Amino acid sequence: MSAILPGATIGILGGGQLGRMMAMAARSLGYRIHVMDPDPSCPARFVVDACFEGSWDDARAAADLARGSDVVTLEIEQISLDCLRAAERFAPVRPGIEMMRIIQNRILQKNWLRDEGFPIGEYRAIQDETEVAPSLAALGGKCFVKSASGGYDGRSQVKTGFDEQTPDVWKLLGGRPCIAEKALDLDQEISVMVARSPRGETKSFPSARNHHENQILVWSVIPSAVPQEIEQKAQQIACAIADRFELEGLLAVELFLTRSGELLVNELAPRPHNSYHASERACVTSQFEQAIRAVCDLPLGDVAVVQPAAISNLLGDLWLGHEPRFDQALTVPGVTLHLYEKHTPRKGRKMGHLSAIGATPDEAVARVLEAQALL
C-alpha cells in the first residue's frame, strides 16, 4: 500500500469547522482540498480549492467530490451510507463504510460495544412508543434518552427522572427509535483520540478532560491528569476499539469515569473532535494534521504533550446581546482566539473557541475561563 503524497487532492464530506481546520492542516502539508457541504458558504469554503454543494444524502454530489479526489474522508458522521458508497466508486473512503454504519446508529453502536466486550453503562433500545415506559422503569427512571440517529451537542436528547414531570419522550424525539441510557454517578468525563493508518500504525493522544453543561462541551484540557492506571485503561480501551474496527483515520472515544472508579465508553466519533482542539497547542502533532496523515497513509505524528492546553467553546449566545470583547479576552497571558467564519450566530451554535496554555492543566483551564469571562 502506498502513501498518498502531498500534491494530491483530499475530499472532505462536510465543510464545518472541523472540515475547515482539517483543510488548513492539509494545505500546510501541500495537499489540495475539496469539500462537500449543504451550505455553499460553509466555514471551510474560504480555505479550500473547491466546494460542492450537497446535502448529507446527496449521492451525486458525493460522487462528484470523489471523482476529483485521491482519498475521501469526513468531518461529520451524518453523511448517508449511499453517499459513502457513491464516493467509494471513485476514491478510497476513510473511515470505512461498515464502521460508519455501526457508529451512525446509537443502538447499533451500543450493541457492538457490548458484543465486543467493552465496558458500557446500562441501556435499553426503544423501537416503538410501547417500549418507552418499561425501558425507563428498568433503568430506574433517571435516564438520558437519545435519538438512535442524528443529533449532537445536546440535540435530540431528553432527560427523564430528574424532576417530578416525565416528558413525552417519544413525541419529543420525533416518534423514532431511540436509546435510553441510565444516568451515572460521574466523577469526570474524558476522551481519547486514536489515529490509525491503512497500514495499521496506531497512535493515541493523551486523554482530555471535558466539562459539559446542558450536554454541550464548555471546556476541555489536555492532558486530563487522571491517575496513571485510569489513563492506561482508557488508552487500552480506545486502541482496542480502533483495532477491532480496523480504523482508517481518527476515532474519538468518549468515556465516563464514575465515582466508584468504573471507566465506561459513552460514545464514538469517527472524526476530529471538539475535545481535541487543544491538541493544536498542547501536542507535537494536532488532531487535524494527524487526521490528514492517517487517511493519506503517511507516518503518524508524535502525540506527546509539549505543554498543557485548554479550550473553551464560544457559542452564538455571546453575539446575541453585543459584540464579544475579544480585545479584553486576549489580554490574558497564553490565550489565543480561533473563529470559524460562521456568519449567523444563534443560541448554542459553535462560532469558535479560545485556547490557553499553562504550566499545569488547571492553570490552562483557569486562564481560558478567565478570558471567556472577559468577553
From TrEMBL:
Pathway: Purine metabolism; IMP biosynthesis via de novo pathway; 5-amino-1-(5-phospho-D-ribosyl)imidazole-4-carboxylate from 5-amino-1-(5-phospho-D-ribosyl)imidazole (N5-CAIR route): step 1/2. Its EC number is 6.3.4.18. PROSITE patterns: ATP_GRASP. It catalyses: 5-amino-1-(5-phospho-beta-D-ribosyl)imidazole + hydrogencarbonate + ATP = 5-carboxyamino-1-(5-phospho-D-ribosyl)imidazole + ADP + phosphate + 2 H(+). GO terms for biological process: 'de novo' IMP biosynthetic process. It comes from the Bacteria. The keyword Cell division does not apply. Residues 110-296 form the ATP-grasp domain. GO terms for molecular function: 5-(carboxyamino)imidazole ribonucleotide synthase activity; ATP binding; metal ion binding; phosphoribosylaminoimidazole carboxylase activity. The keyword Aminoacyl-tRNA synthetase does not apply. ATP binds at R106, K146, E181, K182, A183, L184, E189, H212, N266, E267. Keywords: ATP-binding, Ligase, Nucleotide-binding, Purine biosynthesis. GO terms for cellular component: cytosol. It is an enzyme of class 6 (ligase). InterPro entries: ATP-grasp, ATP-grasp_carboxylate-amine, ATP_grasp_subdomain_1, PreATP-grasp_dom_sf, PurK, PurK_C, PurT/PurK_preATP-grasp, Rudment_hybrid_motif. Belongs to the PurK/PurT family. HAMAP family: PurK (MF_01928). Catalyzes the ATP-dependent conversion of 5-aminoimidazole ribonucleotide (AIR) and HCO(3)- to N5-carboxyaminoimidazole ribonucleotide (N5-CAIR). Homodimer. This is N5-carboxyaminoimidazole ribonucleotide synthase. The gene is purK.
